[in-house]
């Protein structure tokens, strides 16, 4: 991962090897979140880039496809090939971590068979904090992640 600041005379700030292939990334405020193969999730503080602020394992079982940081900067949503979205929080406090959850989405019954579609995209509304997920089912769903 390379961090750039085009306001600086030398735009490249730093370069960092990731633990595996990068599949998704997003940034908001002073944090960037990177989702890699083998369920690695790294949270970077862009003010201190010597090393990742947090190294986590994804709470989802399968490959990360999309990441979107919450508008308020308190966490991120993580989407995967298993048709799920997980809501995660940056604060390591036990009480805050108890608020995280995951839910199933982008599913359909096709000819009597339950079909799970990967979630490919996440986008947060800049004012209301709601978010949209886009899946391989060709649908875009809008969610209110704070109110489940």
Sum this structure up briefly:
The protein has 148 residues and is mostly beta strands. It has one helix spanning 94-97, and strands at residues 2-4, 12-15, 22-28, 31-36, 40-45, 54-57, 64-69, 75-80, 84-89, 101-104, 107-110, 113-116, 119-124, 131-135, 140-143. The model has no long low-confidence stretch (mean pLDDT 93).
Q: What is the SS-derived class? A: mainly beta
Number of helices in the DSSP assignment: 1
Helix content: under 10%
**What is the H/E order?**
EEEEEEEEEHEEEEEE
Q: Categorize the overall geometry.
A: globular
The residue ranges in which pLDDT falls below 50 over 5 or more consecutive positions are none
The main sheet orders its strands as 3-4-5-6
Please compute the radius of gyration using only Cα atoms: 16 Å
Q: Main beta sheet: strand number and arrangement?
A: 4 strands, antiparallel
**Distance from first to last alpha carbon:** 33 Å
Mean pLDDT: 93
In what range is the share of β-strand residues?
Answer: over 45%
Oligomeric grouping of the chains: single chain
- According to DSSP, the number of beta strands is 15
Describe this structure in words.
The chain is mainly beta. It has one helix at 94-97; strands at 2-4, 12-15, 22-28, 31-36, 40-45, 54-57, 64-69, 75-80, 84-89, 101-104, 107-110, 113-116, 119-124, 131-135, 140-143. 28% of the residues are buried.
Sequence-ordered SSE layout with sheet pairings:
Layout: E1 2-4, E2 12-15, E3 22-28, E4 31-36, E5 40-45, E6 54-57, E7 64-69, E8 75-80, E9 84-89, H1 94-97, E10 101-104, E11 107-110, E12 113-116, E13 119-124, E14 131-135, E15 140-143
Antiparallel strand pairs: 1-2, 3-4, 4-5, 5-6, 7-8, 8-9, 9-10, 11-12, 13-14, 14-15
């Amino acid at each position: 991962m390379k961090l750039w600041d085009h306001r600086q005379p030398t735009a490249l700030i730093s370069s960092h090897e990731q633990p595996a292939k990068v599949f998704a990334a997003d940034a908001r405020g002073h944090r960037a979140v990177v989702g890699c193969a083998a369920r690695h999730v790294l949270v970077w503080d862009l003010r201190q880039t010597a090393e990742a602020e947090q190294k986590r394992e994804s709470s989802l079982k399968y490959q990360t496809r999309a990441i979107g940081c919450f508008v308020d900067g308190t966490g991120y949503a993580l989407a995967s090939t298993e048709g799920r979205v997980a809501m995660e929080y940056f604060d390591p406090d036990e009480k805050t971590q108890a608020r995280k959850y995951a839910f199933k989405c982008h599913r359909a019954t096709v000819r009597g068979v339950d079909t799970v579609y990967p979630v490919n995209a996440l986008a947060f509304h800049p004012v209301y904090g709601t978010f949209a997920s886009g899946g391989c089912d060709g649908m875009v769903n809008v969610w209110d992640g704070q109110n489940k």
